[in-house]
Request: fold
Amino acid sequence: MNRESKHHAWRYLFIDGLVEIAFGTLFLLVASVFLLKVLGAPSQWMFHVIVFPSIPLMFFGAEKLRSRLTYLRTGYVVPRVPKHAHPKLFALFLLLGLLVNVLFALLGAASPEFREANAVVMLGLYTGTILAAFSFGLRRLQHLGAFAALLGAVASLLPMTSDGRHLVFCAVLGGVLLTSGVAVLRQYLKRTAGGRP
Amino acid sequence: MTPPDEAAFPDLDRTIHAPARLQLTALLYTSESADFTYLLTQTGLTKGNLAAHLAKLEQAGYLEVQKTYRGRVPQTLYRLTDEGRAAFKGYREGLASVLRLTQAPQGA
Reply:
């Protein structure tokens, strides 16, 4: 069975753009915490009070919306997780991630300036890799992944503090994800207005 | 007339072979379970047609129907049984060997 048909049910998760909207909103929330930090407000508690509780709420909300919107229009499917989902590939990803982390930690310990300057590059690379790895062949998500990685690199060149760079990264990526999600949702609603896609 | 070579022409499962049922088994093979609306929108069949094909797959023991609730909304989920998965796998292999026979021989 080819990749296209294997990914069919997984791709359905992204048919309505709600996942992108949830992640976009999350990035904007994180950006708001960095904004407070940049403005000099005491923001340590903000992460725990605003961002962390929002994660389950966001996905609970998206699922609720889905059951009122998507499942009624185009149905419900539970994708199949293969019993042996490329264990070697996952192990390789894990090992590479660990190596990069260790390297980054060592370099960061040796030079705090290096960590300051490159933390946003790492964030961009991580986000981009996750988006690409879970794209299930969807071009839209692959492009968003590439954009996240590029954005991290560009943000690291900005003449500002590390918090400022993180603010720019999270705000721009959140905005782009939200815009993309809303556009997909609008298209989906239009396409399924008559009952069938 | 010589009888067809049984080894060369494997018997394809007729329950799966119908185009609509092939679509349905293929969709369910790649998912854990799916509801009626999903199968309806993905296959483009009419409700009556889809119900008839699902009933045929259920009669063959390839499909199991699970009636649950999602919140307060009743939900009917369809999933392939182990027998259904094995039958679809066998069908794919059989079809692949039939298709191999139609390939032009090397150097022809």
About this structure: Helices of chain B lie at 14-17, 19-29, 36-43, 47-59, 82-102. The mean pLDDT of chain B is 87. The CA atoms of residues 20 and 45 of chain B lie 8 Å apart. The interface with chain A takes residues 26-27, 29-42, 44, 70-71, 73, 75, 77, 92 of chain B (CB under 8 Å).
